[in-house]
């Protein structure tokens, strides 16, 4: 599942994949410039999400 996500991000130009010819195999991923350009938007999304009140778990008694 993770490899599928990484491959899709690579196809979208968000990450770059570097394969090292060695044993055992070694693969590195890093953000491209395009991927780096997403950071401000992701930071804003995290800030927004942190402000959201926690949802109660299903079946948890309400505190009144």
From TrEMBL:
This is HTH hxlR-type domain-containing protein. GO terms for molecular function: DNA binding. The keyword Transcription applies. Residues 1-57 form the HTH hxlR-type domain. The keyword Transcription regulation applies. Signal peptide: none annotated. It comes from the Bacteria. Keywords: DNA-binding, Transcription, Transcription regulation. It holds the Pfam family HxlR.
């Amino acid at each position: 599942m993770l490899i599928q996500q990484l491959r899709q991000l690579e196809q979208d130009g968000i990450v770059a994949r570097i394969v090292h010819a060695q044993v055992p195999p070694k693969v590195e991923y890093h953000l491209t410039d395009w991927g780096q350009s997403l950071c401000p938007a992701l930071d804003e999304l995290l800030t927004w999400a942190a402000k959201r009140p926690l949802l109660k778990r299903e079946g948890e008694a309400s505190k009144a």
